[in-house]
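Now for a typical sample entry:
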Amino acid sequence: MELNDLPQMDPRALKATSVKAEDEHASSAEPQALKITAASSNPKMFTLPWHKPLATWPEDLLDNLPRGISRHVVRFVHVGDEVYAMKEITRQVAEREYEILRRLQKLELPTVTPIAVVTGRHDRNGEPLEAILVTRHLKFSLPYRALFARNLQPDTAERLIDALAVLLVRLHLAGFYWGDVSLSNVLFLRDADAFSAFLVDAETGDLQVQLTDGQREYDIDLARTNIIGELMDLASGRLLPSDVDEIEVGNRLVDRYHSLWSTLTDTDKFGPDEMWKIEQRVNKLNDLGFDVDELEMKTAEDGKRVLVRPRVVDAGYASRKLLRLTGLDVQENQARRLLNDLDAYRASTWREGEELEIVATDWMREVYEPTVRMIPREYRSQIEPAQFFHEVLDHRWFLAEKAGHDVPMGEAVESYIQSVLPNYKLDDKAVNELNAEADSGVVDDEANYEKPIDDDDYNPDDDPDAAVWSH
């Protein structure tokens, strides 16, 4: 094989960041002055109290959003108009995770967005503090435990697993070895009747040119083990429906992963008179949400069969189409539902022969925008507009079926807001309970402080835990 024929790392990933993390066991000196390497130009980043342990930051900077279980101190922080997730970890790990997340972002994979890595932190007495990795809070997303704290459908566990399987396949196709697959390391967004999963913790990950089958299988096996344990933990806390079989759900991930991987990567064999099956294969991939960039076709050795293998680019077939037509940037299943409603609007207004772009503009003005403007203010941070629209359509269908006739959209929206939307709200008590449980897994002792400590009262020489921050 020629050198040029060998798989190459995507140049987008190679040029993703100037941060090059060193080995976590390296003993290079810590920076003596504060250093912020940022992918954002938000000037308020420099005004934050970097000289304080993250667990002691003042409450007026924090946003009380549900956090997932983590081994490290994590807080959501207001920085101007943005909300950032801050994670306090060692410099080497922070730099490495920032670098990996930047690479994955450049490859347009579903991860949280890296904002900055902050090193060279010291308190007022000059004692070193751990570095902080900064990512943008994924709006409308929730950790899996917060989802189960709400009134959800009985098949929620299965739908989360399906989303995780899609995420794992996409990451593996790009050459990303995760090394710690679990529900805890993922954030979930509602995506019509399904969920979309986003990688949130890449500490153990590694981006390679191409993964071996052994690396993929190790990730899958570890995922199965971790998921079964996490679901058993939910069951012990009475958050999991009693009829859910944790082992069966763990096995579902393995089955869903292998099925999807096979569909995306297998080589099909067609006879010379079966070439129509190529279009069928492409349509199936599109239905799964994946775009096909190239089709590799060659004749089999016997000369009687044609071998066809697609080169899959990425998910987002429907969402890219909707973005082009309307400017709406939504999840894949949401995009499918909105496109279906756009088609229904086009048919109902007798405009099948008109340019779809023009019809889409009218649909946005007459149907979509008036509906999502009705979201009550107190819920605008709880549910995405596209998800609201999808659920209102479902609710309208149920109302019409019950009434035996069509129901006006405005009436369906009002009914949905009164009877369904309240299920989305997590009160402060529930959030505080979830966050207390999340903090119970933190190994950094400073997370156990009950209240912020004023700089004038704090002396690291009197604190036996201060040494934690220097490692």
About this structure: The mean pLDDT is 82.
